[in-house]
Every structure is written in C-alpha cells, then in structure tokens.
Design goal:
Blueprint lengths: L1 H20 L3 H32 L3 H22 L14 H5 L1 H17 L6 H9 L3 H33 L2 H27 L5 H26 L7 H20 L1
This protein binds zinc ion (ZN) (2 copies).
Length: 257
C-alpha cells in the first residue's frame, strides 16, 4: 500500500515536472505517449476490470448500469477539467482554461483521480471476494499489478497535460503546489477505499459500485483519446502501431504477471 502510494504520487510529480522543465517536448512525443497510455487503459479495462466486475457482481446487469453511469459522470467531470485527464491541452488560441478557471479544472481532475485511486485500494476487497467464491485468488493477485501499471501509465500524460494547461494560465510558482495536490488525489482515494473495506464500513459489493463507476470513466477517457488523436479520420500508421504495441503489452502482462 505504501509502495503504491509512493509510485502514484511520484509518477504524477515527475510527469508534471517534465512539462514544467521541458515544455518543448509537449508536441513531438506527447501525442504518442498519450495514445500508448490510452490504449493500455482501454485494454486493462476490457481485459481485467470489466470481466472481474461482472463475474463478482451478484447482479451483473445492474453492474452494467453503474458502468454507464460512470461514463456519464466522467463526461461531466471532463467539462470541469477541460479534458485534462484524457490529455487534452488547449493551446493559446483557445481561452478555455482561463475562462473556465483553474479551480474548476482542479476540482474536476481531483475528483476523477480520487475515484480512480479507489480501484487500487481493493487489494483486500476483490481478492478476498474472489477467494471466498471461487478460490482462484491467484488470478486476481497477479492482475492487480497490471492494473497499477496501467493507472501509472495513464497518470503520466494526465499530470503532464495538467501542468501544460496551468502554464498557459497562471504564474509558475503556484503550479507545483497544484501539481502536488493533484498527485495526492489517487493515493488518497486508494487509502480511503482500503480503509472502508478493512473497517467493514462498506462491503465488497458496495465498493464494486465505485469500481464500476471508475471502469465507465476509463472507457470514456480511453475512447476520447482515440477520437482526439485523429479528429480528421485520417489514418496515422504510427498511432495504430503504438496502439497495437500497448494492447500487446497489456495482454502479455495480464497473462504473465
Ligand atoms: Zn478533449
Ligand atoms: Zn486519471
């Protein structure tokens, strides 16, 4: 748990720092990294999170509703955050970020990242659950490393985009403070969901509702990345290759880890 906390926090801090110190990297490599991370997120959602949620849910069709609701909630959060969590960086022409206000962006993004973190507090929850019912907990244990890896990959471009957006609208000295606040969101979500489970304040079934919401959010974020990476419907070979590479890696790690 502590290791996950440190990994999540510093991945966000480092990726944000990169945008801060080397802003010229933004254009050339950012889009490809974004497509890679988005594809990876899509892959673990489909390969890992969704199957697990449906298998474990006492009422699978209701789980489907939570996932749709999560998709919708993410749509609203993206209005607040101007799409920072799917790596949307508004350029100088757009005044989006300054119009909408830094605090709105921070609130939308923080809520998203906090929810996302709850998925990682489940070391006890989902594992114990699966163990109780089917006794194949080894499957889950292994997969959750892949889940962590996917979220860390997504955290990178997310933090990078946040700093890039903030740099265009505010003084530099505030940016690290806001970046640190954002970097704490997912670790705090993880600790809270872990605490709620351990203390038995919420049962595994209730926590699975949150995971369903997060899964819906992931579907929104990852598919939006696909859309925005080729808005003109042109075929970009490098993006397709990067996407396939991410799928391949996600599939391999899901089987091997
Ligand atoms: Zn967008
Ligand atoms: Zn996120």
């Amino acid at each position: 748990m502590l290791l996950n906390f440190i990994l999540l926090f510093f991945t966000a801090l480092l990726a944000g720092g990169l945008a801060y110190f080397i802003p010229s990297w933004e254009e050339r490599y950012f889009k490809l990294v974004l497509v890679f991370a988005g594809s990876y997120l899509f892959a673990i959602t489909v390969l890992h999170i969704l199957p697990e949620l449906f298998v474990e849910s006492a009422n699978p069709s209701r789980m489907g509703l939570y996932i749709l609701l999560g998709f919708f909630i993410q749509q609203i959060l993206a209005l607040l955050s101007t799409g920072v969590e799917h790596g949307h960086i508004h350029h100088h022409g757009h005044q989006h970020a300054s119009e909408i206000g830094v605090w709105t962006i921070m609130i939308g993004l923080f809520m998203h990242a906090f929810l996302e973190g709850t998925l990682l507090g489940n070391e006890g929850s989902l594992t114990a659950h699966v163990h109780d019912h089917a006794g194949h907990d080894h499957h889950h244990h292994h997969g959750s490393n892949n889940l962590l890896f996917g979220i860390l990959l997504h955290k990178g471009p997310e933090a990078f985009a946040l700093v890039a957006v903030l740099m265009s609208v505010m003084k530099k000295r505030w940016i690290f403070l806001l970046l640190s606040i954002f970097a704490l969101a997912s670790p705090l979500g993880m600790l809270l969901s872990n605490y709620l489970y351990e203390s038995k304040l919420l049962g595994g079934e209730t926590l699975n509702v949150f995971y369903g919401l997060v899964a819906g959010g992931f579907l929104h974020i990852s598919t939006t990345i696909f859309f925005e990476s080729s808005p003109d419907h042109r075929f970009y070979l490098n993006k397709v290759l990067v996407s396939m590479l991410a799928f391949g890696l996600a599939i391999s790690l899901e089987m091997l880890l």
